């Protein structure tokens, strides 16, 4: 279900890329899907998968070039309409403007994917208040703004819809190496469950997606390097031994996101180690 397609890059050189395809062909035909953090990794793969399934896609990212590229490639994949919007999701006013623009120009969003996020490693006492603010602003406030603004439009329209929030296995797996990141994701998980209860009567589903380790920029760049990188590596090695951790591609997370919408799933651990950790979290007393 991962298909290769060929497109040309900025220099006109043909390159191969992949898209999660087939399973939901035409399932989202004509629906408006807004994905944040769509300029790279899981968000980009998700935009592609929705485009492939016939949706109109709004690719939002603070990285203008990344968002534009995702929109362009979504059109190539077959989305009748795909647009890019450059917005920092933690900026309340910018998000309000985006919500107004999207409603005015493209319509009410049918599926919202609050996926933008940043990583940060460092022990609790190495994490400065500025670090906390940066992570909570992007990972938690970005999701709050998205849910408030676009969720309200969905509710007011009265025709249902779906919100997907990208949490993480870190939301329920304590780690010495990632206190701020894990806290932000635990908050996203709880927010999603509360909102799911509130919106259930209005035909609006809310899903929290919890991937473990996925091969993207967030895991391969400096975000997760730093003082506790060795601890994080050790954890990954342990997970690899326990759950057969592999290079998990973002396309598989995208597939899980589309499935969560179709099946209206509440909490979705995605990678094998994320599923294992969710099970363990229920039965293991915490140290
Ligand atoms: P990524 O770095 O490839 O993509 C994240 C995208 O979000 C980037 O394009 C970035 O520019 C954008 N972004 C970050 N902050 C933003 C902001 N304030 N406003 C707008 N855009 C912003 O990483 P990814 O792995 O694709 O991450 C996507 C989501 O998945 C994140 O929320 C991340 O925490 C979560 N996640 C990732 C993993 C993993 O192992 N990769 C595991 C669990 C959860």
TrEMBL record:
The keyword Oxidoreductase applies. Keywords: Oxidoreductase. It comes from the Bacteria. Residues 31-212 form the Ketoreductase domain. The keyword Oxidoreductase applies. Belongs to the short-chain dehydrogenases/reductases (SDR) family. This is SDR family oxidoreductase. It comes from Streptomyces kaempferi.
